[in-house]
Amino acid sequence: MSISPSLFDRRFSLFDPFHSFFSDNSDLFGISTNAEIDWKETKHAHVFQVDLPGLSKNDVKLELHERRVLEITGERNEVEQAEKDEKWHCKERTTGKFTRRFRLPENAKIDEIKATMENGVLTVTVPKDEEVKKPKERAVEINGDDDHQRSPKGLGRFVCCKA
Fold first, then answer.
1. N or C end of the chain, less CB within 10 A?
2. Which residues pair with 123 in a beta bridge?
């Protein structure tokens, strides 16, 4: 598998700020991103549900970076080693570190984030503001020298050619 995601991979969108950047479940440092996550938006909150079977709340870390990046990290250790007279025929459960990061929307109330862990499912609830604060619109004055007439610049001086 490639380290970087394919631009043609329908699971990856260059413009989706919520998607994990690496599509092969690991990043350049070998940290797995294979924690499966559902994210839904309700009328009052953003709700993340993360499947983490076999882990407890002590195995998972939830942090907020740069005031709006939610990071979920943890480590799943190998539970059972094969004895010297035993042989594994199938071993599909993943082990190792995992991390997922999400940029929260502007309307997220980051000071009110709550998380619970039940039956191997981490649920993170991020309340949101009812109204989205829109930036104020204002006119911007253009300064310049109106006294001197200059030759027109910009696209008028370029010649287009047909291919």
1. C
2. 49, 116
> Are 101 and 71 spatial neighbours (Cβ–Cβ below 8 Å)?
yes
Our CA dihedral for 45, 51, 54, 56, rounded to 10 degrees, sits at -20
Per residue in 74-95, pLDDT tens? 988 876 777 888 888 887 777 8
CA 149: distance to chain centroid?
A: 51
Reduce the DSSP state of residue 80 to 3 states and report it: coil
What is the strand order of the sheet 45-51 is part of? 37-41, 45-51, 121-127, 114-118
Q: Which long-range contacts (CB under 8 A, 24 or more apart) does 12-17 make?
A: 17/102, 17/103
Report the alpha-carbon angle 16-20-23, nearest 5: 110
Dist CA 33 CA 24 (whole Å):
8
The pLDDT value given to residue 116? 95
Q: Is the model's pLDDT at 162 over the cut of 80?
A: no
| Most confident by average pLDDT, 30-44, 63-77, 88-102, 114-128 | 114-128
